[in-house]
Amino acid sequence: MDTWTLNPCYLYRTSPVGCPHTFGEHVKSPDVTLTDVVFYFSVFADNCNAPLVSSLPHSSFQSSSQSSVGYAAHNAKLNRRDGAGGWSPMVTDQEPWLQVDLREQMEVTAVSTQGRYDSWDWVSGFLLLYSDSGRAWKQYRQEDGRIVGNVNSEAVVQNKLSHPVRTRFLRFVPLDWNPSGWMGLRVEVYGCSYKSYVADFDGRSSLLYRFNQKSMSTVKDVISLRFKSHQMEGVLLHGEGQRGDYITLELHRGRLDLYLNLDDGRVRLGSRRVAVTVGSLLDDQHWHSVHMERFNRQVNLTVDAQTSSFQTRGDGHSLDVDYELSFGGIPLPGKPGTFLRRNFHGCMENLYYNGINVVDLAKRRKPQIHSVGNVTFSCSQPQLVSCTFLSSSSSFLSLPPPRPPASGGFSARFQLRTWNPDGLLLSLQLHPGPQTLELQVSGGRLLLGLHGSGRDGLWHSVRLDTRNLHISLTVDGEPSSNIELWEPVESRGNFFFGGCPSMNCHAQIPSFQGCMQLIFINGQPMNLSLVQQGLLGNYNELQLDTCSIKDRCLPNLCEHSARCSQTWTSFSCDCSGTGYSGATCHNSIYESSCEAYKLSGSSSGFYFIDPDGSGPLGPTQVYCNMTEKKVWTVLSHNSSAPVTVQSSSLQKPHVMRLNYSASAEQLRAIVSGSEQCQQEVVYSCRKSRLFNTRDGSPLSWWLDRDGERRSYWGGFLPGVQQCSCSLEENCVDMNYFCNCDADTDAANDTGVLSYKDHLPVSQVVVGDTNRTGSMAVYSVGPLRCYGDKSIWNAASFYQESSYLYFPTLQAELASDISFYFKTSAPSGVFLENQGLKDFIRVELSSPSAVTFSFDVGNGPAVLAVKSHLPLNDRQWHYVRAERNVKEASLQVDQLPLRFLQAPADGHLRLRLSSQLFVGGTASQQRGFLGCIRSLTVNGVAFDLEERARMTPGVSSGCPGYCSGSSSLCHNRGRCLEKSNGYVCDCSQSAYGGTTCNQEVSVSFDRESSVTYTFQEPFSVMQNRSSQASSVSTDSRAREDVAFSFVTSQRPAMLLTVSTFSQQYIAVILARNGSLQIWYHLQTDRSPDVFSPALNNLADGRLHRIRIHRVGKNLYIQVALFSGMENLNEEVLQAASKGFIGCLSSIQFNHVAPLKAALTNRGSSLITIRGPLVQSNCGALAESTSHTLQGETHTITQKLPKFMEIVQKNIKNAHDVFKNCLKLQNFVQNCLEHGRN
């Protein structure tokens, strides 16, 4: 362990930030060891818990009010019975608080609360505010929700702070109390004192730390400091060297940017790139801690509790800085007091550079420190008084105007910050009336009306002036906008900021939610302290003397690099371009393997697979070959053509590096999840040996996926240095292990590598082609794998007390659990994991219901899906449960999904500690009896079979015909167990036959059509019981459409799906025969039209189309699309031409409408017009027609990717396709059928 990793205490002779000032004394001795330092640090950390309140005088306590003298604030000491036994406010106090002055800056690590002695008065929940000066308060935010208080008057509840607070003043603000009593409070605060070295920078000053030598070169750097400022721009630290190295810490737009370059001289100061940005809202006048550690190229930057780690680019490992480091600005060389960038305006505390206390040296006027401008050593930062508007419906601040200026008119100016796009900022009545002036934020822009950007969380200044016959609006000092008036106007009555009482509002505009400060009316500052004391104006739903803005996108709880956006009360995730969907972009929109695509009814082609599902790896494109009995996953690389090698030797070998279409991590996941993998290596030689015939050492070799040298050229026995001919005993010369080692004029060693742990081949090295006439030609085939080990990995539970156990679930912020089960038992727990209080459980709660329950600290949450048919029918059933910070969901088979929205500002983290129990519980009660297979958690497949082999009461695998890895039923067909065999249920498949593999095709003429009317909206698109936000509802909408067709007609209508509200999807062939997909989800918008395949598909060949949508993510095979609107002229033209040709295997979600039309002709849901002839599209196709695999080459000439994800902002997509799906020539028939 190296000393520099000590955080935050650094092994130097001066005290770093966060350490007691006596720490330096302990490390002055040259005999001190690192063990001593670590021991001292741990003792200090454990000892910062001394009581700080018990010895304070009465004057250190204040409160908003007190019921009487006996209930005064100074009686609020823990376990004391002074006065009435604690503090209680007046019953009429609308905003009660208790304040404690610790007399000096302290590090606070915990608080304890107690109710009023021997009473029914206690506080069950409260806010904790802190401040340096007793003004400008900041709310302490626990990582998970509000701070929990008491449940009676005597028990002490201690809350340890997840991150210590350094402050002098604390304020307890009761939120909840005993409903049968009143508020009562006694408190204690725990912590310790700490040494503070402060420097104040006035925006025109800096400190220069000058080195003893010309330059300083370091491979390790530790920089730590605390700062506070009300400016969102300013340089905290800068250093640079002549050869291009530099380091800069800079505030920019309220965030902290670190610029760091170690050796790339091409990147100059003026064009530097931002290496990392950390933090948010750092211009809030409160202290923020910064800690940067660098070792060689590895950098950790921490701001408050958020850490970002990265590696610098290039090969350099040292930071070379010339002459000096500057703190507070970047001075212009030769011109003291002038700066290249805007310098810092605020205070810095405990500023350490590699253990050197910069402020202490400056304060003692040491020669290493040079001061530029006016740097003082006490923090005189002005405390700007802010107010927070809490409610979007009822907040307002009413202020009487001062005397208007002599020139007439009126003016108002203020600063605001918010996340909300809409809200009323200012409203006032005008004279002569009746007129009202309203200033509002609408869609993030400022609007001024008679009857800019402002939602980025930053402070913006707004100024409103009336002068002569103009009203002018100025934002952030930009040129003003003006409104001309017919006559002069004056203000009448109070100015309403942030909203107004309902009787005063001109229009129904949401109240402003955000912060305001520096409010001026008619040029006079408004004293908000007088407002708080009730001496000026009036207000409602307002917090004074604090800005309670919170960045809900920090940390970013959106997964897979999705973009986070927010309002005052919530955040949402934009999953566009990520390949994931859901409220937090947790769920992959792709299958995990080619085997999974095969089971869903897909055919051969290029697909994106996500080998770890919701895990971090991401999707990659592969080719899925489903033409054989086995489903092969094929991954290509950059060198598929044969390579000729000459003039290579061991000293100068030929080296070929193979780059695959997937990353190394993705390759590893695909290989490990497959049953078998192989890769063919063809090696043709002429006087080019693979092994030295004298000592057997390799002359050529290949590197495996880990970069290890391998010298076997076939088979699955890596320890044997042989070629395939030796393993098969058919080498041309049995004296050698390889044909090429016979050193003849022509030989060949072709082998198939099949040892999974070494695949794929990452590099080929050839070293024996430097002799006269010698040459080698080799090629490495693609990586080919088959099987998905997780799909049929199963365990059977035949004792109720038995279970399998696995390590604790890593599911703090998000988790998804999926599996199949079959049972005859009426109930049983599938899975359970517990913590101290939190838990997560999935169980069969009754013969027809699956329940998903959990508790993250907000109380138990329960989701249940009930089936109208028994689930204990000895058949396989699918379960998927998901929980994230925004919502939870439960899916069982094709039954309606159930959703539950997470409470606002509730606990987020699921804290588990016990083992994960599968098939039972820790109590060995309510165990599951039956089979579980394909258990996957957060994309990780659990090996149930391996664990079952060593567990009593559980056996590996599952008995029955439908439990094997061979797919007995195809194309979404469901295998059903029978006593003497099995049958395939093809009701949800577009195919027929005994194994659901027979194509269901119909030939249409110009007058033919089929209409299928849905009985009810698809539950997967809509969930009326859900209470989640519209954003997450949008993310749940989904369709899966697949069909094949053969036609020579163009234009032609292939398929439409429409609703009574004029929403539709239409799939047509345009006049040129190209495929077009029309998507209309918003009736007030034009449709989106996509033409993914520009070639003519009306060519008499068989084409397969698959369209898959999840929320805003759309994925199309042999086409590309995304879209939205009402039947357009071009769609109607295609419809008027009808469709002449053959359609087959049509699937829409779990409905097969074409098959239903053939098998249920008397159904009221089916409408058939014209002649309908059962056919075979494949047989009708021309002899030159291509299947999907054959079509690939043509399509990929048009598209860079055969299958693509198209990200379009499809809004309000959750009401799509409620009513009918049409396979037709006349589109209107669908709507007519609905009206009749």
UniProtKB/TrEMBL annotation:
<dbReference type="Pfam" id="PF02210">
    <property type="entry name" value="Laminin_G_2"/>
</dbReference>
<keyword id="KW-0245">EGF-like domain</keyword>
<keyword id="KW-0472">Membrane</keyword>
<keyword id="KW-1133">Transmembrane helix</keyword>
<dbReference type="InterPro" id="IPR002181">
    <property type="entry name" value="Fibrinogen_a/b/g_C_dom"/>
</dbReference>
<dbReference type="GO" id="GO:0016020">
    <property type="term" value="C:membrane"/>
</dbReference>
<feature type="domain" description="Laminin G">
    <location>
        <begin position="198"/>
        <end position="379"/>
    </location>
</feature>
<keyword id="KW-0677">Repeat</keyword>
<dbReference type="InterPro" id="IPR001791">
    <property type="entry name" value="Laminin_G"/>
</dbReference>
<dbReference type="InterPro" id="IPR036056">
    <property type="entry name" value="Fibrinogen-like_C"/>
</dbReference>
<dbReference type="InterPro" id="IPR000421">
    <property type="entry name" value="FA58C"/>
</dbReference>
<feature type="domain" description="F5/8 type C">
    <location>
        <begin position="48"/>
        <end position="192"/>
    </location>
</feature>
<dbReference type="Pfam" id="PF00754">
    <property type="entry name" value="F5_F8_type_C"/>
</dbReference>
<comment type="similarity">
    <text>Belongs to the neurexin family.</text>
</comment>
<dbReference type="InterPro" id="IPR008979">
    <property type="entry name" value="Galactose-bd-like_sf"/>
</dbReference>
<feature type="domain" description="Laminin G">
    <location>
        <begin position="1020"/>
        <end position="1177"/>
    </location>
</feature>
<keyword id="KW-1015">Disulfide bond</keyword>
<feature type="domain" description="Fibrinogen C-terminal">
    <location>
        <begin position="585"/>
        <end position="637"/>
    </location>
</feature>
<feature type="domain" description="Laminin G">
    <location>
        <begin position="793"/>
        <end position="958"/>
    </location>
</feature>
<protein>
    <submittedName>
        <fullName>Contactin associated protein-like 5a</fullName>
    </submittedName>
</protein>
<feature type="domain" description="EGF-like">
    <location>
        <begin position="959"/>
        <end position="997"/>
    </location>
</feature>
<dbReference type="InterPro" id="IPR050372">
    <property type="entry name" value="Neurexin-related_CASP"/>
</dbReference>
<keyword id="KW-0732">Signal</keyword>
<feature type="domain" description="Laminin G">
    <location>
        <begin position="386"/>
        <end position="547"/>
    </location>
</feature>
<dbReference type="InterPro" id="IPR013320">
    <property type="entry name" value="ConA-like_dom_sf"/>
</dbReference>
<dbReference type="InterPro" id="IPR000742">
    <property type="entry name" value="EGF"/>
</dbReference>
<feature type="domain" description="EGF-like">
    <location>
        <begin position="549"/>
        <end position="586"/>
    </location>
</feature>
<keyword id="KW-0812">Transmembrane</keyword>
<feature type="disulfide bond">
    <location>
        <begin position="931"/>
        <end position="958"/>
    </location>
</feature>
